[in-house]
Design a protein that fits this description.
The complex is a heterodimer. By secondary structure, chain A is an alpha+beta fold. Chain A is 27% helix and 24% strand. In chain B, the strands form two sheets. A six-stranded antiparallel sheet of chain B has the order 6-7-4-1-5-8, with helices on both faces. Chain B has a two-stranded antiparallel ribbon with strand order 2-3. Classes of the chains: A alpha+beta, B alpha+beta.
């Protein structure tokens, strides 16, 4: 069956693909996945990064979304670290491995702190304080 | 004194990555141990800067095919002040030593590296001209 309306000259009919009007085309911008981007850039260096670690890292990034964006590092151990660095006297690093969250920070000159807790999708107060001192 | 190294001795940890040479100091990651669980340094007492740089380039830069960017200068006492770390001689090459006894936990290692970075003095190489020395 012809798709051309019989009362129109074919030269004046413009066929438009339904794809143009697909919601996916206008609103289907993939969400930013900074953890995914870092993993992709690290390539083969991520073979020992577990799915649980990736999930924890994405969850952590959401928890700190209202703070300045951290530097993300894939550690040789397979853990993922997030760093806020102002200078050597104000720096905080949070590291996740799918089970625990670990942190180390310099809150000011000669004021180091560190800690570890099971990661249950919330940030320990001490880790938050470390970020706020460095960010 | 620890293992034959006097507490007042100056130690140099050479840096190859320009992104480790921050405005206010050497980034804490430059102090972390390698896969051998040791952080290499050279003893630099009574050496002028150009001789220190020559040692760094010969023993660290050249084996890695890179130019040194400078070094972090510490006193051996600074390592003693970061327990359980120890600085011990490890020759050859001459004047070489290693910081050992790093903890197994990543957050504890990070904290110790931050403690060292907090007190270390950055020595950039080549040295930039001092405004006071302008002709």
């Amino acid at each position: 069956m012809s798709a051309v309306p019989h009362f129109l000259d074919t030269s004046t009919v413009v066929y438009v693909s339904a794809e143009v009007f697909s919601p996916r085309r206008w609103w289907g911008v993939p969400p930013i996945d900074r953890v995914g981007d870092v993993l992709k850039a690290a390539g083969n260096n991520t073979v020992n990064v577990s799915d649980a670690t990736k999930h924890a890292a994405r969850a952590l990034l959401l928890l700190v979304s209202e703070r300045p964006a951290p530097q993300i590092t894939i550690e040789d151990t397979g853990e993922i670290s997030f760093e806020w660095y102002r200078d050597n006297h104000h720096v905080a690093v949070l590291t996740v491995d799918g089970q625990n969250i670990r942190w180390a920070a310099m809150l000011d000159r000669s004021k180091p702190v560190s800690g570890m807790e099971p990661f249950a999708n919330f940030l320990p107060a001490a880790a938050l304080a470390a970020i706020d001192a460095a960010a | 004194m620890q293992g034959g190294i006097a507490n007042t001795e100056r130690l140099a940890i050479f840096v190859l990555d320009s992104n480790r040479m921050k405005a206010g100091g050497v980034h804490w990651r430059a102090f972390l141990p390698g896969d051998d669980h040791e952080r290499s340094f050279f003893r630099t007492d009574n050496l002028p800067a150009d001789e220190i740089a020559a040692i760094g380039q010969k023993e660290v830069g050249d084996p890695n095919g890179r130019q040194i960017r400078g070094w972090a200068e510490l006193a051996a006492q600074n390592v003693i002040d970061a327990p359980p770390l120890h600085a011990i001689p490890s020759e050859p090459p001459p004047r070489h030593g290693v910081i050992v006894d790093w903890p197994a936990e990543i957050h504890e290692r990070n904290k110790l590296a931050m403690i060292l970075a907090d007190v270390a003095i950055k020595r950039a190489w080549p040295q930039t001209a001092s405004p006071l020395s302008a002709a």
